[in-house]
Each structure stands twice: as C-alpha cells, then as structure tokens.
Specification:
Length: 318
C-alpha cells in the first residue's frame, strides 16, 4: 500500500506579529529598570557621539587608528540602540509585541554589530602592528586608499554575510510567535520554524567561525609580532610606546570577548534564573559600547585632548 507524504504543519501567514518575552517582571519593576536603562543609554550616546564628532571634525585625527575608532563607535551606537530602545519601551509600556519586518531588522542590526566589532578590532590590531613593527613604512602601507578599502571591506563583508543569513531566514516557514529572548535574532526566530533548518544553522556557524577565528588569528599574530619587536629592540621608549598605543585596543578587545564568554557560560548553567541569563545576554550590547568611549578618552592622549577642548569650546560662553 503506497503512502503519500503530507505536510504535517500549517505555517503562519503574513502579517506575523511576534511576542518578545523579554524580562519576566511586574509593571512596577519596569519603571526603575527604565530609569537605569535610560541612564546607561544616555552615557553610551554621549560618549560615542562625542568620539565620532571629535574625530570627524578634527583633520589632525583623520589617521587610520582614529578612523577605525570612529567606525567602532558607530558600531557601538548601532548595537546598543538596537537592543536598548525596544527594551526601554517595554519597561514603560509593557508592550512586548513586534512586527515581522521590525524583528528581521533588529536581527540584522544585532548580527551586524557582532560581526563588525570583531572585524574592526582585527583591523585595528593590524594597524598597531604596522605602526610599531614597521614604523618607517607605516605611511606607505596604511595609505588613505588602503584605509578606505579596509573600512569598506569591514562593512561590506559583514553586511553581505548577515543579509544572506536573513534571506535564508525569511524563506523558512514559521509555526510560532513567542520569542523567548530579550531581542530578536536569527536564532531566536528560527526556533519558531516549522521544520529543521540545518543549512541555515551550518551557514550561521560557519560565517561566525570564519570571522571570529580570523579576527583572533590576526590579533594574536599582530601582538606576538609587537611583543617580539619590543623584546629584540629592548628600548624603554619602544616598550612604553607599545603599551600606550596597544593598551586601549587590548582592553576593548578583552571586554568584548569577556561579555560574549559570560553569555555562553550563563546559558550552560541551569541553576541561573531566566532573568539573570537575559541580563548577561545583553551585556555585550551595553558594557563595551558604554565603556569603550571612556577607554578612548583615558588611554588615547590625542583623543583625550580633543575631547577636553571640544567640551571647553561648547560650554564656555562666546
């Protein structure tokens, strides 16, 4: 007896409206959380917008390292704004629904932020390697044309990888609307799929592995070369210059990696509450974007001077 294979699911039809679970809190708890989130978001906005403005308006800071810092600040603005603004709205209104198009857009911004930060940090490490290990050839290697090319490649590769991922996502039939997370991501949406998605999962893991592993290798290579150059030269000025120029970049990189490591560890521990896991899940969108501008202002002397000058000219009466 022949058997016919029937489709055992009924996919949802557009318009689809998702319910983002978010934090499991009462309405009264939402107001202090909104105030705390608003303060953090305001600090992040002030710090990163100041960095972008100072670098963009000062011709003396139009150098490769500072241009990449500017790109990183823009990336931080994208990541934090994408996650924090819907979250603050949920704290105040209690509304946790989002349209399908808005969910896909948030997923695009979330994944773009994660991949772009890793790529930008790798380019910054390469720039430090050239500046310290090959100082005589620095301006020949890091020309304006190469700088523009590197910036273009960072965003082009990132956007292409994420767009392909989400194109595969939107072609997948969905059978649910409850996203059990704080924000919409590719993985969170695909958990609602009616069918298994091995191809999308393999592509997502492969692209993530290539970008992050490539970034780690570039950073490791760059700093091993820098360390070797400082040991060979055995010059105090060389060591102090290396520490001064690399400390801020290494701190930012470690901060970003630690925030990701916290996410991975907390989701493997069953005894941690769902709200605690969700707090850890948004750390990578809050901690680096908030702390990075402070690190720039303290560790990078040129930016620190320009920021002080910028605020003095803004506050002082004309």
């Amino acid at each position: 007896m022949a058997e016919t294979e029937n489709v055992s699911y009924v996919p949802l039809k557009q318009p689809i409206v998702f319910t983002v679970e978010g934090f499991i809190i009462t309405r009264q708890q939402g107001y202090p959380l909104f105030v705390a989130s608003l303060i953090v978001y305001a600090v992040m906005l002030l710090g990163n917008i100041t960095v972008v403005t100072v670098i963009a308006t000062d011709a003396k800071l139009h150098k490769p390292m500072y241009v990449m810092v500017c790109n990183l600040a823009v990336c931080d603005l994208l990541g934090c704004t994408t996650v924090m603004t819907p979250l603050m709205s949920h704290f105040v209104t209690g509304n946790n629904t989002t349209a399908y198009a808005a969910a896909i857009f948030q997923a695009f911004c979330v994944h773009t932020y994660g991949l772009a930060v890793a790529t930008i940090l790798a380019v910054m490490a390469y720039d430090r390697y050239v500046a310290i290990c090959q100082p005589l050839y620095y301006h020949t290697i890091m020309t304006n044309r190469r700088l523009v090319s590197l910036c273009f490649l960072v965003w082009f590769i990132t956007v292409c990888l994420v767009v392909i991922l989400l194109i595969l996502n939107v072609q997948t039939p969905l059978c649910g609307t409850l996203i059990t997370h704080v924000y919409c991501s590719n993985g969170a949406i695909l958990r609602l799929a009616c069918i298994a998605t091995p191809i999308i999962n393999i592509y997502e893991m492969s692209s993530l592995w290539i970008i992050r592993t490539g970034g780690i290798l570039v950073i490791a290579f760059s700093y091993l070369k820098i360390l070797k150059a400082c040991i060979i030269k055995q010059e105090k000025n060389c060591r102090s210059k290396a520490i001064q120029t690399c400390a801020s970049h290494l701190t930012i990189y470690i901060l970003f990696e630690v925030s990701i490591l916290i996410i991975v560890m907390t989701y493997r521990l069953q005894e941690i509450s769902p709200n605690a896991k969700k707090v850890c899940a948004i750390l990578t969108f809050i901690m680096p974007p908030t702390v990075n501008p402070i690190i720039y202002g303290i560790a990078m002397k040129d930016i620190r001077k320009k920021i002080v000058k910028f605020f003095k000219s803004t506050v002082s009466p004309k």
